[in-house]
Write a structure and sequence with these properties.
By secondary structure, the protein is an alpha/beta fold. It is built from twelve helices and 16 strands. The chain has four domains: about 5-45, no CATH class; about 50-215, Ribosomal Protein S5, domain 2 (2-Layer Sandwich); about 230-360, Rossmann fold, CATH 3.40.50; about 365-405, Dna Ligase, domain 1 (2-Layer Sandwich). The protein has helices at about 5-20, 50-60, 110-130, 145, 175-195, 195-225, 255-265, 290-295, 295-305, 330-350, 350-355, 380-395; strands at about 25, 40-45, 70-75, 80-90, 95-100, 105, 150-160, 165, 170, 250-255, 275-280, 325, 360, 365-370, 375-380, 405. Helix 3 packs across helix 6. It starts with a helix and ends with a strand. About 30% of the residues are buried.
């Protein structure tokens, strides 16, 4: 059995967060497993703040909407249940709600998450109405509006947990829903009453999210009425499409800029390989609302080329290429572009990643051209380059002085 230090350390850190004050030390004594300095891999985790520290950790690189972390504990002695919740909104646009049952990560959610969502939606709408932000039933904020930018940890401990789902990571105990719902109503309701200034910041953020949702819906409706970009009709002009029409045989190369697009088009097999140049760094969808995302030309071009639609309109059966290959330079800018593209696909067309349709091209850093028989080799790192050169020289090959080694952009 091959143990992954990274997987184990991530899980142990999670357990340390969930068990306040518990110290966990992980040391890798395998000789071949060392860090960049050649030292033994060794980590120690202990969090006196428990899941409050967990929320701080998750929001470390994000601006926060309100300073305080909302946290509480509750217990149901009759049903032998206890609950811990910590939550804080950040200025981002993604929801990060993590649920646990007996420290097991319930990735599929379950009844404790249902109770949390129901209570939170009701509470925020109640205070939004009390404070005069919404006046009509039609103005009610949706759960998605309210949870935009929310980081939350929900940890329940229960005597006889019932796990459901394919991977048994969904809590099924019905009593957990009512317990979580009541506990949240009481504790978070009290927090809103005592902290109206911060509470109003949360409400205003949710209202901004609702405004963006309505604008995005109008943008989608407008796109469809114009034979819409989101339904894949009217391919973008810069797409060099392939000849074949069977998606399972076709590939789409998403490349950085028109220059790279030109060379890729020249070297492709146009029967089954399509090329879509993307101009510079695309919009960071993690930091932009959906209405702005849908108005971005590069994003529109990509959505159109793929043909699947996004979010609720996503249909994997309409995917036009079964290999979506991201190509970028082997430098920092190239890595950034790949990250932005992956973020877009993950947030708006996640099944493409989950079902294995997305690939990363790995361009070489060096081209080594030996004299004589015009033998060419490629290296993906300085170490590999040096190794290939040494092997070649030892074998009596000649390396031209002027153009023997070519370093690609990276």
């Amino acid at each position: 059995t091959d143990f992954s230090f990274e997987v184990l350390s991530t899980r142990f850190r999670e357990m340390a967060f969930l068990n306040k004050g518990l110290t966990i030390t992980l040391r890798d004594e395998r000789p071949s497993h060392v860090d960049e300095k050649g030292e033994q891999l060794n980590v120690r985790y202990c969090y006196e703040g428990g899941i409050v520290d967990f929320v701080k950790h998750l929001n470390t690189t994000k601006g926060v909407t309100h300073k305080s972390i909302i946290a509480f504990e509750s217990e149901d002695i009759k049903h032998k249940m206890s609950l811990e919740v910590a939550m804080q909104w950040n200025t981002g646009f993604s929801e990060s709600v993590y649920t646990f049952a007996n420290t097991i990560n319930t990735q599929e959610g379950g009844t404790h998450e249902e109770g949390f969502r129901t209570a939170l939606t009701s509470l925020v709408n109640k205070f939004a109405e009390e404070w005069g932000y919404i006046r009509r039933k039609e103005d009610r904020l949706t759960g998605d509006d309210i949870r935009e930018g929310l980081t939350a940890i929900i940890s329940i401990k229960i005597a006889e947990p019932q796990f459901e789902g394919q991977t048994k990571t969904k809590l099924g105990n019905t009593e957990a829903k009512s317990f979580t719902q009541k506990a949240l109503n009481d504790a978070v309701g009290e927090w809103f009453e005592k902290n109206p200034t911060e509470g109003k910041e949360i409400v205003r953020k949710a209202i901004d999210a609702a405004t963006a949702r309505i604008a995005a819906r109008k943008a989608r409706d407008l796109s469809r009425s114009r034979k819409g970009l989101l339904e894949g009709r009217g391919m973008p002009g810069k797409l060099a499409d392939c000849q074949w029409t069977e998606p399972e045989k076709c590939e789409l190369y998403i490349v950085e800029g028109d220059s790279a697009g030109g060379s890729t088009k020249g070297g492709r097999d146009s029967r089954y390989q399509a090329v879509l140049p993307i101009r510079g760094k695309i919009l960071n969808v993690e930091k932009a609302r959906i209405d702005r995302v849908l108005q971005n030309n590069e994003v529109q071009a990509l959505i159109t080329a793929l043909g699947t639609g996004i979010h609720d309109d996503f249909d994997i059966a309409k995917l036009r290429y079964h290999k979506v290959i991201l190509m970028a330079d082997a430098d920092v800018d190239g890595q950034h572009i790949r990250t932005l593209l992956l973020t877009l696909l993950f947030r708006f067309m996640r099944p493409l990643i989950e079902q294995g349709y997305v690939y990363l091209a790995q361009p070489p850093l060096y081209k080594i051209k030996w004299g004589g028989k015009e033998l060419v080799q490629y290296a993906f790192s300085d170490k590999e380059r040096d190794g290939l050169i040494q092997i070649g020289l030892d074998a009596g090959k000649r390396l031209p002085k002027e153009d023997g080694i070519q370093r690609f952009k990276g």
